Structure formats: C-alpha cells, structure tokens
Amino acid sequence: MRRRILTCVCAWTIAIAIVNATDFWETKPFLDWSDKEVEKLLNDSPWAAIIAVPLPNTGPVPSIESSGGGRGGGEGRGESFGPGPRRVKITISWRSAIPLKQAVVRQQAGQHGTVSPDAQAILAKEDEYYVVGIQGLPPQLTMAGTGKTIDAFLRRDGKPAIPAQQAGVQMMRGGSLLMIGFPRTDPITVDDGDVELDVKLGDLHIKKKFKLKELVFAGKLAL
Fold first, then answer.
1. What are phi and psi of 70, to 5 degrees?
2. Read out DSSP for 122-144?
3. Greater model confidence, 131 or 68
4. Is residue 183 classed as helix, strand or coil in its secondary structure?
C-alpha cells in the first residue's frame, strides 16, 4: 500500500511539473495575458531576442553573432560591455508571428479588453511576408535617420537565402522599430533547423540565429 501511494504521489508530481512547464501563450487566451506576460512575449521569448551590437565609428566594428532561441529585450542605449567599441542593446522579434501579433493587440486592447474589427482583421490575415522587427537602434542608424540602403537576408543551410523586399520604420513606445519584410515564396519549415537573420545597415552588421523548433505555436511553426 505504501509503495502504491508513493507511486501515485510521484505521478501527480510529474503531472504538475508538465503543466507548469507549458508556456502561458499556449495555455491562456491572449486577452487574459497580464501586462508582464505581454512584455515577456515581445522582449523575452522564443520569438524575441536581445543582442549587443557595436556602434559604427567608435573603433573596430566586428559583426555580433548570437545563436539559439535567445531571450531578451531592451532599449537602444549605448553601453560599455568591456574593452572594445561602445555597443547598443537591440531587440529582434518576429513581428509576423501570431503570438507577437496577439501580444500587440492585447497591448492595445488591455487585459480582458475588446478586440477592434481592424485588430481582428490583422490577426486573421495570412501575411505575405515574414516580418522581422529591430528595435533599439539610435535614430541616426535607422533608415529614416541615415537614408542608407539596407541589405538583409534570412539564411538557411543548404537553401538559397531569402532577400528582404520591404523595409520601413515605425515609431513605437520603446523607440523606433525597423520592420523588414521577406517574401514567403520559399517557405521556412521546422525541418530547416535554424534560420539566421543577416542585416547590414550602413556600417552596422547584425546577425541572429533562431532555432525553428522553438518557434512553434499551437502545433505549427509561427513566423
């Protein structure tokens, strides 16, 4: 009897651990997300990552590379991270991914709020482009501030790179948001393993790799 009770307790503990390990964006309707959960999705989730980028014209400017599903968020504030050029923290996020679109709509509607018809249309729309946002760059380094051309690709091993076809800047609460659109004509799949964002903006070079198996929402790849 004692052994049977211990077995039940262990099974119950495992079940609780599995439930607790499930992310809130999979278990809660998006209008129920708290403000803190919304911020986490936009800045510290599989679809959003923070990297530190060396600022041009402040000494040697090597590329900054970050791999993995990364978490993070932050503002475009130049900081010192030890010897070398000053760097700025930027947030890279998949703005066309449905969880991030839901987070933005929830941010506008408020918790338990009402979704407007325009927002409903945005959520229901199948995007023609993969849209990646870069937030936190100083204004002079965005397209609007410099007028420099942008050279951006999504790269996968063994397949042709996907070049950007659209780019623009939006003003957000956290500063300017550079939005880059890549066509979906050669769809990215989980079987691709990783996808790497590779952006050159003037003298600035940004690279960030994402693990595609971590970007699954409701059983499907969400980009």
1. 35, 145
2. HHH---SEEEEEEE---GGGSHH
3. 131
4. strand
Amino acid at 91: T
User: What does DSSP assign to residue 74?
Assistant: -
Query: What does pTM read for this prediction?
Result: 0.78
Task: Return d(Cα 163, Cα 154) in angstroms, integer.
Answer: 7
| b/e 11-48 (16+ beta carbons within 10 angstroms → b) | eeeeeeeeeeeeeebeeeebeebeeebbbbbbbbbbbb
Tens-place pLDDT, residues 54-109: 877 644 434 444 444 444 433 444 444 445 567 788 999 999 999 999 999 999 98
Q: 163-174, pLDDT tens digit by residue?
A: 999 888 877 666
Long-range CB contacts (< 8 A, 24+ apart) of 12-17?
none
The backbone torsions φ and ψ at residue 194, rounded to the nearest 5 degrees and listed phi first, read -130, 155
User: Is 180 exposed, middle or buried (CB count within 10 Å of its CB: 0-12, 13-18, 19+)?
Assistant: buried
Burial of residue 111, with CB atoms counted within 10 A of its CB: 0-12 exposed, 13-18 middle, 19 or more buried:
middle
Q: Indicate the burial class of 51 (C-beta count within 10 angstroms; 0-12, 13-18, 19 or more).
A: buried
Taking only Cα atoms into account, the Rg of the chain, rounded to an integer number of angstroms, comes to: 20
**Burial degree of 49 (CB within 10 A; 0-12, 13-18, 19+):** buried
